[in-house]
Amino acid sequence: MGILEVKGVNKRFGGLQALGDVNLSVKEQTVHAIIGPNGAGKSTLLNCLVGKLIPDSGSVMFDGQSVLGRKPHEINQMGISRVFQTPEIFADLSVLENVMIPCFARRDGAFRLHAYETVRREAGIREQAEAMLADVNMLEKRHMTASSLSRGDKRRLEMAMCLVQEPKLLLLDEPTAGMARADTNNTIDLLKEIKAKRDITMCIIEHDMHVVFSLAERITVLAQGTPLVEETPENIKGHPKVREAYLGEAQV
Amino acid sequence: MDAILIQILNGLDKGSAYALIALGLTLIFGTLGVVNFAHGALFMIGAFCAVTLQKILTLSVTTIDPERTDFLGNPMKVQTPYVENWFGPELGAAIIDWAVPLAILLAIPVMVLVGFVMERGLIKHFYKRPHADQILVTFGLAIVLQEVIKYFYGANPIPTPAPSAFKGSLDIGVWLGFDPYSIIYPYWRLVYFFFAGIIIAGVFAFLQFTTFGMVVRAGMADRETVGLLGIDIDKRFTLMFGLAAAVAGLAGVMYTPILSPNYHMGMDFLVLSFVVVVVGGMGSLPGAVLAGFLLGILQSFASMNEVKSLLPGIDQIIIYLVAIVILLTRPRGLMGRRGVMED
Amino acid sequence: FTNAPTGSAVTLGFNVPQTGAYADEGADELRAFELAVEHLNGGGDGGMLNTFSSKALDGTGIMGKKVEFVTGDTQTKSDAARASAQSMIQKDGAIMISGGSSSGVAVAVQGLCQEAGVIFMSGLTHSNDTTGKDRKANGFRHFFNAYMSAAALAPVLQNLYGTDRKAYHLTADYTWGWTQEESIAAATEAMGWQTTEKVRTPLGAGDFSSYIAPVLNSGADVLVLNHYGGDMVNSLTQAVQFGLRERQANGQDFQIVVPLYSELMARGAGSAIAGIPGSQNWDWKLEDEGTKAFVKSFGEKYGFPPSQAAHTCYVQTLLYADAVTRAGDFNPCAVVEALEGYEFDGLGNGPTLYRAEDHQCFKDVVVVKGAENPQDEFHLVEIVEVTPTEQVTYAPDHPMFAGGALGECNPGA
Amino acid sequence: MAETATFDRGQNNAATHPKFLSVWDIQAYYGESYIVQGVSFDIHEGEILALLGRNGAGKTSTLRTIARLDDPALRHGEIWLDHKPLHKMKSHEAAANGIALVPEDRRIIPGLTVEENLQLAQIAPPIGWSLERIYGLFPRLKERRKQEGVTLSGGEQQMLAIARALARDIKVLLLDEPYEGLAPVIVQEIAKTLNIIRDQGITTIIVEQNAVAALKLADRAVILDTGSVVYDGSAQEVLEDEALRQRYLAI
Amino acid sequence: MLGLERKDTLLLIAVAFITLFAPIILNPFPAGSALAQFNAGYPDLMQRFVIFGIFAIGFNILFGLTGYLSFGHAAFLGIGSYSAVWMFKLLSMNVIPAILLSIVMAGLFALVIGFVSLRRSGIYFSILTLAFAQMSYNLAYSVLTPITNGETGLQLTLSDPRILDGDTGGGLPVTSLFGAEMRETTTLFIGPWSWDFSVGYYFCAVLMLLAFYLSVRIFRSPFGMMLRAVKSNQQRMNYTGLNTRPYTLAAFVISGMYAGLAGGLLAAMDPLAGADRMQWTASGEVVLMTILGGAGTLIGPVLGAGFIKYFENIFSKINDGILHQWFAFMPDGLENVMVALIHPFIGKGWHLTLGIMFMLVVIFLPGGLVEGAQRTGRMFRRRDRNADHVESDAARQRAAAE
Ligand SMILES: Nc1ncnc2c1ncn2[C@@H]1O[C@H](COP(=O)(O)OP(=O)(O)OP(=O)(O)O)[C@@H](O)[C@H]1O
Ligand SMILES: Nc1ncnc2c1ncn2[C@@H]1O[C@H](COP(=O)(O)OP(=O)(O)OP(=O)(O)O)[C@@H](O)[C@H]1O
Ligand SMILES: CC(C)C[C@H](N)C(=O)O
Ligand SMILES: [Mg+2]
Ligand SMILES: [Mg+2]
């Protein structure tokens, strides 16, 4: 049994079968990559996991519990965090506050009326957030308003926001897209480090094969809404179908 | 039965007014995304175009009639309109009589101009500003416009009768086989209804059969990108504003025989027109028109004695009640588009 | 007592609607106040000071103190009106407040003046409540009320339209509308009319068509419009548009009645008003000396005849000044005493009494109708009859006025 | 193919040199923050220029300035395209003169379908590729043409953004991270397309984090760091000079 | 101090100082001088300043932080007033129970209305709140007259039971705080100046300071941060494991209670509750106050409230007679020209002036009055550009918003 069990999930958008009978099992404390051509349904699948979309049929179990029918915040509180394909951050807030909010969410749950304490006094939370920002090399930008970050920085910020929650399952939708190569490498290291430090499971979507092959232990290839193969990285590299449908002449 | 029919007719009429106002408002609010609290003022200015034309047409030469005396016992000043002097008393009187429809000719250029000036001079700087700022500035403008009108025309309503050809009413009931007088409908209201129909159809056709509507909507959603595609969106926004102002103004002109114009009529309609637009759904022209008619008719029904005796006060709150119910059952009003002013 | 004048001047507070639907009434009231102050201070031609039966006033202000005034905006809202009155009392030291153009405002401000210990000489307020259940010792009303309108109108209506009539009421849905509806219905029923329906309409409805249309088939043959201001202009115009006046019902011509009239409303309604009967507190076309004097000084100063709003406010100011002078004291309680039961003449409408029990003024009521062919814009209203005082007088404990108590006069701090 | 440009700083050479697009000492601000700090380079017709640099170096800001968007605001410097002063234009005028920008976050217009997004590009002249031709290049878009543009998958949106640029008759194509989020096969496709575009004489500036891919395609490279040019030379050289890459790109 | 940061403490002290000395500050001109017209230091207006300040502070907690624009907040003000007057009629003239009931009732209504309205966002939310408030207003004006006394407004009468107070003698009783009458005023004369110190004003002022202090705490609390996050990106909130609904609802209820408090105080100062208080124009007014002062800033709403109330009460009272007094020193012709020029803007033209001021402020001071204050402040201390401005962070957040 994996920590995440997706069984027979279907999702249609009008005439389009975005997901057709997807089965996926992600083992605890592994990094599982999902790759596939554009429009294959990768993001749609993640959307079904975090409650953004409700599949037409099928089941999604996390840690032995079904996530279907739960609200996004409940799912998050179960231990699933997600980095989106286009950065979703609190654009009007400072970088530091962006990271503090998930810290609060982790400590206090989905709602707590702490209207009389001051944020300043929450030293523990702030230290946590600053430590996280330091990890992603953004500490010196902590007082910037998030909207004025460059795009690559926004991605790093979003990742920090998810990591700081110490989720059991981290879903990453193209976390390094638009990141400079150096930062991509840093990110790979960071994810590896976190993985080593904590019992975390990761599910990663990437088009950057360097990232995929540096991190993934299992790879599922999705094409036109259905899993094509699920294999170890070594086997994927040489897989003819995958080469044709996805990799092309790319060097991996 | 006839009581219900007559309420439907009344509702259609009220509905056309709501629909016309909401239509203009949707162009600015639902399409340009500007919370225009001055829209009511535009409606009012339209109405005062009719008043002004009437005033112009009755500009008079003053002669002293020593036979008669005025209220202080001084010799009486007699006023004869210039038009009667120029065109003869009969034609002159007829022209004066037709002041309201003629005012359309005055209102179109005036309103388009007002729209242009307002957009270029003020609104232009507020597209990127928060809605709150738009509210403040347009509300300020509305107050200013309304006070200016009050300064020149006073606070009391000014009668602007329909041409005498449209006085009286049509006995629709007789056609349908009811007793005479059971369903009657004033001619001018019929005119208003058809007028509304024409304007609505015209605006729809313009936006449907040209790319104008699409471009403006796109420009609203993302003006930067539209600029990257070589489109001068500012010009189109200005035009759109002129169009919206003209629609609002014409709605006002033709409404004057039904509602004697006064300086606060715009504010009176303002809140209601926002409700109509939102119930129709942000950004949807058909939605605005539909909601206008729907609320008009419902309001008519709610003012029937039978209904009122069951639910006292229902006629005063029906619009709001319906608005609440619709907005709770349909998240984006009747036909709203996703993402328009939802945050 | 509150705001006792110490210097060489005394300050009066004129609280009128300067914005909102009644702004024109307010403007006319203000003109009248200014004129009154001018006359009190010995300026102008003296106006009604010359015709007033009391000769206490001599054009040297009030008790030798020059009259000054402050103005405020009621916005025709109770809240704003009270704020404005408060500021006149607290900031400007006004010792008397007058003006206003709505019963709600009048009652609210009257209550305030009672608490603050100043005199309130109300302006336009027609609801029975002002001197009925909401009467106050410090407040006086020169305007007539709904009951008196009804009492004056009823006989005229009987003459015009007979005793076999079915009336349909459209009523502005608030306190003033209700009391007028109640009064008119009672008076007309007393002479044999039936009331088929009383329909309440929301304030400022704009389009009344859905209330008017059902009148057609209701079996009624008279429509009573208990509306005022813009509402009345619209409901009347629309009723005429719906052809009510050309209609026949129950074998008689259909008729419309507007119990409370004003010249400004008549102007707004245009030709629709022709022939419609109603009542007024006063009209500039009255023939008495006081009226003539007032119309002359007002007309010469402003170029048009005064409205009934102007008249009321002018008279209220003179009356107050006179009462102070007669009492020889600015103390509100002395003023109240001087005004209670006071009889006078020469301020229009003939001999007049300020009744002690409820501070309502009793005088002739003017029944009017819209002119068919007005000779100019000032003759939109014709006087039908001047109803003598006796006919509109009622007992202080009349049920329509019951439930209130004057309390004691309050001189304040 | 490209002559390595040597730019005389402090002088506007655009008028005298037969350069196609000249950017001279542009300085641009977001509000009060000084972001583009005097960038100069020029390009010949049909050249492909790779504009590289770390996150936050100012690449996007430079492209936006050239496309004449309101933000960042150009306060100093000149931009000449084919003897026309872009720096005096607004973005829609620049577009009419042949500039097209494929923005980094794609900027598909909400509320419009895929096809409407393309049609919108063809409202103002000059008009480029026909819809058929575009669909020929991106069959995926043809399939999805009735769908609302913003619901496309990330990669599909990227295709639409590029397609939208091609729908106009352009002289200069500014690509801000065109490969981001695209599957390797598609990246190869697009690279091919860019070559086709170059063959038609369209000048391209490409900003890409995937520096290697961009350099392979490009004739010249300009590297930015904190808003200034730190390298301007042949792309080949950057590809080959490890030390250079390490210094400016950390790869 | 008080658990606040230095700059907030300074702000609080400044506000406290200004409110406490308002009777002096607002009456800068000697009584009887030509400019005395501009004095605003009389009890009724000062009370209104602070009461509407409370209203706006509360509104700002909802609008300034979450971005949810309620167009029906006046309903809560009205409910507060009605509750308080009923308390005066039935129980006692002591203001404490009245105000408590106001807050509780307004809170309850806010809970219900907020629960329903918050199911929608953006303009849909605004219209829902507007609809609820308009319904309340229309009903209060007509059908509910037995409870609200309709157009006239709910007032005290001699026949009210007032179980705790017992007989009050002949006149109407007055509101008080354990015997201290709200209307009690001491006037201090110093030279030509006169200053009014009224019990009612100080009562309101203390509550306003309390309300202000609370709002500072809320702004600086994690809760406040969450609300700003809601405004910025609700989606992200949800995917971060936070349930946005209780946050917004809590903000709505808190701001409703502020409105209730304001309504209760209005009634405590002047025991009358009119339906007009619930009309959309009244809801609009608090919106305008907040934006005018600077939404999302701490002190802005109070400034906005003061600004509007000042125009309403001071400008509307200037009449031609006063103008003539001012310009009396000029030659007659010139005097008349000046009066004619200014005439349209004062007295009955005060709305015109207000409208123009709205436009000027929003055009030239995008952040509202607070922004104006900052600019002036900046002008005075050009030197230390980087100095921390008291409000700058909030203003910046606001500028970045939407
Ligand atoms: N709301 C929607 N309505 C209609 N179609 C949709 C919707 N959302 C996604 N789709 C379609 O579903 C398909 C799968 O989309 P998805 O975003 O899951 O792709 P993806 O695998 O993440 O691709 P990419 O790698 O390009 O991001 C696409 O063809 C997309 O156009
Ligand atoms: N709207 C803005 N307001 C203020 N500063 C901004 C804004 N946008 C970008 N910046 C700043 O300008 C600098 C350059 O940003 P730019 O987006 O041009 O970088 P970039 O080179 O494109 O980076 P990336 O590779 O991450 O996309 C960054 O420091 C960024 O923080
Ligand atoms: C203006 C008044 C004469 C009538 C008004 N409606 C009232 O309440 O009394
Ligand atoms: Mg995707
Ligand atoms: Mg970039």
From TrEMBL, chain A:
This protein's record includes keyword Nucleotide-binding: yes
A Pfam family hit: ABC_tran
Sorted UniProt keywords: ATP-binding, Nucleotide-binding, Transport
GO CC, any one term: plasma membrane
Protein name stated in the entry: ABC transporter ATP-binding protein
Sequence ranges assigned to domain ABC transporter in this UniProt record: 4-249
Taxonomic placement: Bacteria, Pseudomonadati, Pseudomonadota, Alphaproteobacteria, Rhodobacterales
Gene Ontology MF terms in the entry: ATP binding; ATP hydrolysis activity
Protein species of origin: Limimaricola cinnabarinus
From TrEMBL, chain B:
Membrane topology: Multi-pass membrane protein
Protein's name in the database: Branched-chain amino acid ABC transporter permease
GO terms for MF: transmembrane transporter activity
Keywords, in A-Z order: Amino-acid transport, Cell membrane, Membrane, Transmembrane, Transmembrane helix, Transport
Subcellular location: Cell membrane
One GO BP annotation of this record: amino acid transport
Family: Belongs to the binding-protein-dependent transport system permease family. LivHM subfamily.
Pfam families: BPD_transp_2 (PF02653)
From TrEMBL, chain D:
Sorted UniProt keywords: Amino-acid transport, ATP-binding, Nucleotide-binding, Transport
Domain of life: Bacteria
Listed GO biological process terms: L-amino acid transport
Annotated InterPro entries: AAA+_ATPase, ABC_transporter-like_ATP-bd, ABC_transporter-like_CS, BCAA_Transport_ATP-bd_LivF, P-loop_NTPase
One Pfam family per UniProt: ABC_tran
Occurrences of domain ABC transporter (ranges): 21-251
Keyword Nucleotide-binding included in the entry's annotation: yes
GO molecular function, a single term: branched-chain amino acid transmembrane transporter activity
Family of the protein in this entry: Belongs to the ABC transporter superfamily.
Designated name of the protein: ABC transporter ATP-binding protein
TrEMBL record, chain E:
Gene Ontology CC terms, in alphabetical order: plasma membrane
Segments for region (Disordered): 382-402
Recorded topology in the membrane: Multi-pass membrane protein
UniProt biased composition (Basic and acidic residues): 385-402
Keywords, alphabetical: Cell membrane, Membrane, Transmembrane, Transmembrane helix
GO MF entries: branched-chain amino acid transmembrane transporter activity
Pfam families the record matches: BPD_transp_2 (PF02653)
Keyword Lipid metabolism annotated: no
Compartment annotation: Cell membrane
Origin superkingdom: Bacteria
KW Transmembrane (keyword) present: yes
Residues annotated as transmembrane: 9-26, 46-63, 94-116, 123-144, 199-219, 246-266, 286-311, 323-346, 352-373
Protein name: Branched-chain amino acid ABC transporter permease
Species, as recorded: Limimaricola cinnabarinus
